[in-house]
Specification:
The complex is a heterodimer of chains A (113) and B (111).
Chain A: E1 4-7, E2 10-13, E3 19-25, E4 31-37, E5 43-49, E6 56-57, E7 64-68, E8 74-78, E9 87-94, E10 103-104, E11 108-112
Parallel strand pairs in A: 2-11
Antiparallel strand pairs in A: 1-3, 3-8, 4-5, 4-9, 5-6, 7-8, 9-10, 9-11
Chain B: E1 2-5, E2 9-13, E3 18-26, E4 29-37, E5 44-49, E6 53-57, E7 60-65, E8 70-75, E9 84-92, E10 100-101, E11 105-110
Parallel strand pairs in B: 2-11
Antiparallel strand pairs in B: 1-3, 3-8, 4-5, 4-9, 6-7, 7-8, 9-10, 9-11
The chains are: A mainly beta (113), B mainly beta (111).
């Protein structure tokens, strides 16, 4: 099992450009999450999907959109990137929302110039 | 709201025991989790305390006291590979089962 995979691993964007971060899990998990991590801070939830077909805002959703394409895949889109969105983005999954263990992908390191 | 406070950095010697504290201010939560993250890596789950008391998993133990709004992660027989950041996290009640993370503690293990 690959667990949670993310693409790309690194990305550099110019202000105003758009891009989509991809995430997939092969553990048959129902719930998936997108976090961002900035230096000296913990992970902050951007959006999550409790189950296929549903998405909800987290703590810091502004400037982002998500799509739960199917049970395996959950993508994060930046429509018009800003320097404040420079961060490391982690995707995670869990069997269900109530499950205590979340499994994280390797992260995408995004720089917006 | 929720606030989880952790020391930013802790240094200890290989073979020693170290305790990483997490104090919180939250109106209510289901339990306290701990995650480990090596530099450049992904967070990985270590432990979960639903009830007050000590949970032991090998060299790692985690403790929760709801009455004191306090928890800690205890690492015994420290090894160099334990050098990493450690995050506590809670799922606030009424928060839709979403995890809120602390700011993390960077543990440095020295020879």
């Amino acid at each position: 099992n690959a667990g949670v995979t993310q693409t790309p691993k690194f990305q550099v964007l110019k202000t105003g450009q758009s891009m989509t971060l991809q995430c997939a899990q092969d553990m048959n998990h129902n719930s998936m999450y997108w976090y961002r991590q900035d230096p000296g801070m913990g992970l902050r939830l951007i959006y999550y999907s409790a189950s296929e077909g549903t998405t909800d805002k987290g703590e810091v959703p502004n400037g982002y959109n998500v799509s739960r394409l199917n049970k395996r895949e959950f993508s994060l889109r930046l429509e018009s990137a800003a320097p404040s969105q420079t961060s490391v983005y982690f995707c995670a999954s869990s069997a269900g929302l109530a499950d205590n263990e979340q499994f994280f992908g390797p992260g995408t390191r995004l720089t917006v110039l | 709201g929720q606030s989880l406070e952790q020391p930013s950095e802790v240094t200890a010697v290989e073979g020693a025991i170290v305790q990483i504290n997490c104090t919180y201010q939250t109106s209510g939560f289901y339990g306290l989790s701990w995650y480990q993250q090596h530099d450049g890596g992904a967070p990985t789950f270590l432990s979960y305390n639903a009830l007050d008391g000590l949970e032991e998993t090998g060299r790692f133990s985690s403790f929760l006291s709801r009455s004191d709004s306090y928890g800690y992660l205890l690492l015994q027989e420290l090894q160099m590979k334990d050098s990493a950041s450690y995050f506590c996290a809670v799922k606030p009640t009424g928060g839709g089962n979403k995890l809120t993370f602390g700011t993390g503690t960077q543990l440095k293990v020295e020879l």
